[in-house]
From TrEMBL:
InterPro entries xref list: RAI1, RAI1-like_fam
Cofactors named for this entry: a divalent metal cation
EC code(s) of this entry: 3.6.1.-
Presence of the UniProt keyword Hydrolase in the record: yes
Broad enzyme group: hydrolase
UniProt organism field: Ceratitis capitata
Function in brief: Decapping enzyme for NAD-capped RNAs: specifically hydrolyzes the nicotinamide adenine dinucleotide (NAD) cap from a subset of RNAs by removing the entire NAD moiety from the 5'-end of an NAD-capped RNA.
Name listed for the protein in its UniProt record: Decapping nuclease
Subcellular location: Nucleus
Record family assignment: Belongs to the DXO/Dom3Z family.
Major subcellular site: nucleus
Keywords: Hydrolase, Metal-binding, Nuclease, Nucleotide-binding, Nucleus, RNA-binding
MF terms in GO: metal ion binding; mRNA 5'-diphosphatase activity; nuclease activity; nucleotide binding; RNA binding
Length: 326
C-alpha cells in the first residue's frame, strides 16, 4: 500500500497492474471479468415486440466520399421511447425462454455435485445473478479511470432486488430529434449491408428501432452477469444463416461503428477520450473491430473511415487503480 497526497485530493493505491495481466485468461486478477459469450440474439422493433427473427448486418467499408449524413433526415425514424420497466425487456425474455436455469446457478451446481458424489458443494461460494445492460456495466468499469467528477461519469442507475436476483439498469434516455442525433444511425446505414456480397441499401428511411441485440453472459467473482447489448455488424465473406447456433455466432468477428467531429481529430484517431469507453463497450459486446468516421460541422464525412482492431486501441502500459478517500 502507498499513499499519494496532493493539494486537493488524497488517494490510496490499491494495486498496480500491468496491461498484460488484464488480458491473461490463465491467471486472471481477483476482479477479472471473464470474456463474454453470446447466449441469444433478438430483434427489438418495439419495446413490446421482441423477437428471435434476426437479420444480421455485414460490414462494407464505404467506397465513395463524401458521405452526407443529412441525406434522408426528413424520413428518419427515431427510436421509440422506452420506459424504465422495459429497459431489461430483452434480458427478461431470454430468462423466460432459455432452457438453462440461469436464475438458480447454485441449484445446477448442487445437482452436478450430487451426481459426481462430491461433498464440497457447501464449501463453494453461492453464486449471485445480476440482470443488466451494457450501458450500466461500461459506466461502472469507467469509474477507476475517471475518479474526478465530470460529465462522463454523471449518470444515474436504478437497482432493485427481487427473489434474490439483482436488476440494474442505466436510466439515461436521449430525447434528441435533431439532425445530429440521426447521424449515427445514418452512418450505420452506409456501413452495414444485409448481405456480404451486396452494397448497403441507403435509399430507404433509416429506422433506429431496427437493431439487433445480443444477450451476453460473463462472470466476476461469485456474480453471474446476464446483460443485453446492441450488436454491430459482422466482418465476413459469407452469410450466416443459422442465427440460433450460438457456437457459430460466437465465432463471428463483430465490428462497432463510431463517429467523431473533425475538430476532435488528432494524429491518431483512437487517441481520444472516448476511446476508453469504446474499448469497454467493445469488450462487453464481444466486438473485435471499431470503424470510425470523421464528420464535419455540416454533417459530412469527407475522409476515408478508419478501421482498427479493438486490441490495438492505445492503452496505458501500467494501470494504477486508485480509491479516493477523505
Amino acid at each position: 500500500m502507498a499513499a499519494k497526497h496532493t493539494d486537493r485530493d488524497v488517494y490510496k493505491i490499491l494495486m498496480n497492474l500491468e496491461y498484460k495481466e488484464l488480458t491473461n485468461d490463465r491467471h486472471p486478477p481477483a476482479f477479472y471479468l471473464t470474456r463474454p459469450e453470446i447466449c441469444a440474439l433478438y430483434s427489438a422493433v418495439d419495446p413490446e415486440f421482441i423477437t428471435r427473427d434476426v437479420k444480421l448486418k455485414y460490414f462494407k467499408s464505404p467506397k465513395s466520399y463524401p458521405i452526407d449524413l443529412n441525406e434522408g433526415f426528413h424520413q428518419h425514424i427515431f427510436q421509440n421511447r422506452i420506459s424504465n420497466y422495459q429497459m431489461l425487456g430483452k434480458v427478461q425474455k431470454f430468462v423466460l425462454e432459455t432452457e438453462e436455469n440461469v436464475l438458480q446457478p447454485n441449484a445446477s451446481a448442487n445437482t452436478q455435485t450430487s451426481i459426481t458424489g462430491s461433498d464440497r458443494a457447501q464449501d463453494m461460494p453461492k453464486r449471485k445473478v445480476v440482470l443488466s445492460q451494457r450501458g450500466f456495466l461500461s459506466h461502472i468499469m469507467l469509474i477507476p479511470y475517471r475518479l474526478k467528477a465530470s460529465e462522463y461519469n454523471n449518470v444515474t442507475f436504478y437497482a432493485t432486488r427481487y427473489c434474490g436476483i439483482l436488476h440494474i439498469m442505466h436510466m439515461g434516455w436521449d430525447e434528441g430529434r435533431t439532425k445530429n442525433d440521426s447521424y449515427h444511425g445514418k452512418f450505420m446505414d452506409v456501413c452495414l449491408s444485409d448481405d456480404p456480397d451486396l452494397d448497403p441499401i441507403t435509399n430507404v428511411p433509416v429506422n433506429d428501432n431496427e437493431r439487433v441485440y445480443g444477450i451476453f453472459k460473463s462472470t466476476i467473482k461469485e456474480y453471474d452477469l446476464i446483460y443485453s447489448a446492441e450488436v454491430g455488424g459482422i466482418i465476413s465473406d459469407h452469410k450466416i444463416y443459422d442465427v440460433y447456433n450460438m457456437d457459430e455466432i460466437n465465432k463471428c468477428r463483430f465490428i462497432n461503428t463510431k463517429l467523431l467531429w473533425t475538430s476532435q481529430h488528432t494524429e491518431n484517431i483512437f487517441n481520444h477520450s472516448k476511446s476508453l469507453h469504446w474499448w469497454l463497450q467493445a469488450y462487453l459486446a464481444k466486438s473485435n473491430d471499431i470503424c470510425v468516421g470523421l464528420k464535419d460541422t455540416d454533417g459530412v464525412i469527407r475522409n476515408e473511415v478508419v478501421v482498427n482492431q479493438v486490441k490495438n486501441i492505445p492503452q496505458v502500459s501500467i494501470i494504477t487503480l486508485k480509491l479516493k478517500f477523505n
